[in-house]
Amino acid sequence: MVTFRVVRKRILLLITDLEIGGTPTVVRELATRLNDPPRVQIEVACLGEWGPVAQQLATARIPVTPLDAKSTRDFDVANRLVRLLQRGEFDTCFSFLVHANAVAAGASLRCRSVRFIQSIQTTQRDPLWHWHLQSVVQWACEKIVVPSASVARVARKWSHVDPKKIVIIPNAVEPGAFVRSTPAVATAVPRRAGVVRVGFLGRLDPIKRVQDLVRAMTLLEKRFVLEIFGDGEERVLLGTLVHELGLGDRVTFHGTIDRPQIAMDQIDLLVLPSAAEGFGLVLIEAMAAGVPVIGTDVDGIRDVVSHGENGLLARVRSPGAIAEAIRQINSDVPLREHIVARGLTEVCERYAWSAVILQYRRLLIVKSSRLRIEDRRSDAGE
């Protein structure tokens, strides 16, 4: 006879860093929504030092452990992860991004009783060695979670991941957490008379191609202004570009913000001009806020934005195409109304946490519990 009992789950979410960004945001939301003591206990670890998202997690009473890796050559970080897994008696380690996946794979050699799951969040080809490394470390995990069909495709192509290992779970938002724009504001006239506020929200990283959006401003009338939210390695270069193009009075750098709602409340439309994305969390954040979106026609973004339906797609690396899309979405009122309404509907139907969290629960909790019950059956000789 087999005795069934509630299996207490202890899950460690491991990520490269906890700075402000799309993947750290996903980890924060996943941790707070899965945590259900005493049945399910979630902790978070990052390879680097304490970051802003770590503080948000701590405020939500989620334990956070920085592993304080000094560089990518700090190989002892795997030993520190092993000690954390053993001391915390974790049964599952879910890692995000290639560096965390590699460290988790190293730890798996000494933590045989721990179930390892990895995540890939990008379609960015370069640096190609990341994909080579992922192809090596994938042996250590049971499943690999990706946010879109595009990421699944490149994972198979560049890391030769077995399709049977891949689980597609989209990124998500809480629609009710965003203050929706009223129809008159979102679809008829700009929020500030005579001024159209174009917005960007994200890390100022070369792959985001923010320079294309800045250059697009030179092709638009002066009533179009650009609000940039975020920080990163390209901040100085972008500031220099703005000065050289004479856009100092039309471009504002707001720096890093704690919540996307802060940005959505200050823009009339959002542009994501990236050369590559795994998903583009900011797109569904804008849709939830009733802000129309423009993305580039690349993998990842195409998984979220349907041209002319819930947003517009512009040719990548083309300031002219971006400017034309901005002009179109601002001047065509019926199109804007349709995009805003359709975007909100899709967020509620496909990308709300209430639906997405169930997929994570099936993967991390329900399935794992069944595996442990089967293990106990085997131990009993049944």
In short:
The protein is α/β, with parallel strands linked by helices and 382 residues long. Helix content is 42%, strand content 16%.
Structure in words:
The protein has 382 residues and is α/β, with parallel strands linked by helices. The protein has 2 domains: 9-172 and 352-379, Rossmann fold, CATH 3.40.50.2000; 175-350, 3-Layer(aba) Sandwich (Rossmann fold), CATH 3.40.50.2000. The chain is built from 15 helices and 13 strands. The chain has helices spanning 22-34, 52-59, 77-87, 98-108, 128-137, 149-159, 183-187, 210-217, 235-244, 260-264, 281-288, 301-304, 319-331, 333-350, 353-379; strands at 9-15, 40-46, 64-66, 92-96, 115-119, 143-146, 166-168, 196-201, 224-229, 251-255, 269-272, 293-296, 312-314. It has a 7-stranded parallel β-sheet, with helices on both faces. Strands 10-9-8-11-12-13 form a 6-stranded parallel β-sheet, sandwiched between helices. Helix 9 links the parallel strand 9 and strand 10 (251-255). Helix 4 packs parallel to helix 5. The longest helix has 27 residues, at 353-379. It starts with 8 loop residues before the first strand and ends with a helix. The model is unreliable at 1-6, 181-190 and 373-382 (pLDDT under 50).
